DNA sequence: ACGCCTTTGAAGTGA
DNA sequence: TCACTTCAAAGGCGT
């Protein structure tokens, strides 16, 4: 496999280069069923939708049902699985919603500019007719609509920048970096609470994690859900990864383990704070890294693309972004509303204080300090690579870590090694 | 060769 | 806002 080396930043004034493996996304289309789409987009990659919870369940259950019932027809299998799905409890289903959120987050990281809109109308005629043979009068209209969609001009279905990377020089997305212009899927992730929400300073939104509709259902499974204590108690399915990650965040933010969070129904401040903390850019970025480190680092595109993918990643990377790798467009930047004293602030307060400025600004030193502290925690969990690159960073006053939770295991992933 | 079937959920579309 | 449509997976079947 070919690899390319490109500079990604500097470390202690020493240029750092990174291998870029131009591996195609894992969710490209199969040529068989995408001929129509392929006609329009030639050999451009077709990025599929991330699977939803039921699709993940379906994938898992299909071989079981096939073995149990000795049937092979997918339609029959799907009907059986659908029935089983409906018989599952909310808690049982939550496992798959959790996985779906992870997949969605990973997908959004790999394809930051992609939305389901890209695939809309790309399949051939497909008239969903639940009433079987009854040909409705609206069918011609539907067909006409679909034909219209199928015949859209390339200009109407301008591929996003993530597509363009495949064959063309990287282009700047045409959208302006206003949050309101972000695709809905991207904006679904995180909204930092307690931030200014003026017209000039929209609510910060960072990498996608989950649709809001899940936040009331899959609280235990959502990274950005409410009640972090619930997340620990009622989510035996939470992976080792998330568990370890949670332990880091809990250490990062002592508030998460304070007594007020032991009661899910207690004060309003609980969900608010927990959502902010668990949905923080750092946590979100870390979860992305943990979820798919190889993909994340291998699928880096041009520097500007990398910055676009995850500006929030820079603070936790052991490199300093070069000025020309920072993009002023399409990526919310974070800076403190007002100078925050490290001595008197917990990380959660710091994260709360970030808003998206109206123009490109340099990395917030406060944010970087937060990230450094997180790195030190990560280093404790998995000693190694970062120790030689980061100055030891002891917790500031007010950042005192709680007693480490014995149930929180260190991450099994060796993603840190992939950095070097 | 490729659309249909069949399921649920997420998201897009149009009124 | 609401109803409707499309697409994710998958493999046998029909055209």
Automatic annotation (TrEMBL):
DNA-binding region location: 47-115
Annotated protein name in UniProt: HMG box domain-containing protein
Spans through the membrane: none
Gene3D superfamilies (UniProt xref): High mobility group box domain (1.10.30.10)
Protein encoded by which gene: ATF2
Coiled-coil regions listed: none
GO biological process: canonical Wnt signaling pathway
InterPro entries: HMG_box_dom, HMG_box_dom_sf, TCF/LEF
């Amino acid at each position: 496999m070919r690899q390319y080396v490109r500079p990604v930043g500097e470390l202690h004034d020493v240029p750092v280069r990174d291998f870029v493996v131009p591996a195609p996304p894992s969710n490209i289309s199969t040529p068989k069923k995408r001929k129509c789409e392929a006609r329009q987009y030639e050999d451009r990659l077709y990025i599929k939708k991330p699977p939803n919870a039921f699709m993940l369940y379906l994938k898992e259950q299909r071989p079981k049902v096939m073995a149990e019932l000795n049937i092979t027809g997918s339609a029959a299998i799907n009907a059986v699985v659908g029935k089983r799905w409906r018989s599952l409890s909310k808690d049982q289903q939550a496992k798959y919603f959790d996985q779906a959120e992870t997949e969605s987050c990973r997908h959004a990281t790999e394809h930051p500019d992609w939305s389901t809109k890209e695939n809309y109308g790309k399949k051939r005629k497909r008239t969903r007719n639940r009433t079987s043979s009854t040909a409705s009068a609206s069918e011609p209209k539907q067909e006409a609509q679909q034909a219209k969609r199928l015949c859209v001009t390339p200009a109407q279905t301008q591929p996003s920048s993530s597509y363009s990377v495949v064959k063309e020089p990287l282009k700047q997305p045409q959208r302006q970096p206003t949050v309101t212009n972000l695709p809905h899927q991207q904006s679904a992730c995180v909204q930092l609470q307690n931030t200014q929400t003026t017209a000039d300073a929209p609510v910060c939104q960072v990498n996608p994690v989950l649709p809001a509709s899940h936040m009331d259902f899959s609280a235990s499974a959502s990274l950005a859900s409410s009640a972090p204590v619930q997340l620990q108690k009622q989510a035996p399915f939470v992976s080792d990864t998330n568990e370890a990650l949670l332990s880091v965040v809990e250490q990062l933010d002592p508030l998460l383990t304070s007594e007020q969070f032991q009661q899910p129904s207690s004060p309003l401040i609980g969900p608010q704070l927990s959502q902010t903390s668990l949905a923080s850019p750092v946590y979100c970025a870390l979860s992305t890294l943990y979820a798919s480190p190889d993909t994340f680092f291998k699928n880096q595109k041009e520097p500007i693309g990398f910055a676009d993918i995850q500006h929030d990643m820079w603070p936790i990377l052991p490199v300093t972004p070069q000025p020309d790798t920072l993009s002023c467009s399409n990526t919310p930047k974070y800076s403190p509303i007002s100078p925050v004293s490290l001595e008197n602030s917990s990380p959660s307060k710091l994260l709360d204080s970030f808003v998206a400025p109206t123009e490109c600004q340099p990395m917030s030193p406060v944010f970087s300090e937060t990230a450094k502290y997180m790195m030190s925690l990560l280093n404790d969990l998995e000693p190694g690579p970062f120790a030689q690159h980061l100055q030891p960073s002891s917790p500031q006053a007010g950042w005192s870590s709680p007693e480490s939770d014995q149930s929180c295991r260190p991450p099994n992933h060796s993603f840190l090694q992939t950095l070097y």
